[in-house]
Amino acid sequence: MLYNDTYGHQAGDNCLQQIALTVRNCLNYPTHIVARYGGEEFAVILPKTDRKDAYSLAEKISNKIKYLAIKHINSQVKLGIVTVSIGVSCTVPNHQDNPAILVSSADEAIYQSKAQGRDRITISPFFNFNSSK
């Protein structure tokens, strides 16, 4: 939102399009999916991907977005460019699971990344839906 306030909604839409394309270009397999989740958030779904590989991909995405060097003079990160805060959540699903728990844990990880200064990756401690029972 701060980007839109600084540069306008059209520039904000262009920025989101560049980020979406960059994220999509980082994905390794046809089964990997990126989707706009709301506002300026994206969800990246990585079937059959463990935490280590998900974290590595998150680092790649973060670095590629920094490489775009999209100017952001009012950024809350000292770099003065657009960066991303990423939350990673993984699970080994089964038929009794509730996908909302996975989404919620990823959201919590994103908020932790933002609260810790942004431009970082946080892995949710959550691993399996059934562990919350």
Structure explained in plain terms:
α2 (9-26) crosses α3. Helices cover 44% and strands 13% of the residues. It has 4 helices and 4 strands, in the order ααββαβαβ. The longest helix is centred in the N-terminal third of the chain and has 18 residues, at 9-26. The protein is an alpha+beta fold and 133 residues long. The relative contact order is 0.14. The protein has a single domain (2-132), classed as 2-Layer Sandwich (Alpha-Beta Plaits). Residues 129-133 have low confidence and may be disordered.
Question: Could you name the CATH topology?
Answer: Alpha-Beta Plaits
Provide the CATH superfamily.
Reverse transcriptase/Diguanylate cyclase domain
Order the strands across the largest sheet as they lie in space.
1-2
Query: Averaging pLDDT over every residue, what do you get?
Result: 89
Quick one: CATH class?
Alpha Beta
Q: Please report which band the strand proportion falls in: under 5%, 5-15%, 15-25%, 25-35%, 35-45% or over 45%.
A: 5-15%
| Tally of alpha and pi helices | 4
Any idea what the CATH architecture is?
2-Layer Sandwich
Indicate the overall shape.
globular
Tally of separate domains: 1
- Report the radius of gyration as a whole number of Å: 15 Å
Largest sheet: 2 strands, antiparallel
Which percent range fits the helix content? 40-55%
> How do the SSEs run, as a string of H and E?
HHEEHEHE
Count all strands and give the number: 4
By secondary-structure content and strand pairing, the structural class works out as alpha+beta
| Euclidean distance between termini CA atoms | 37 Å
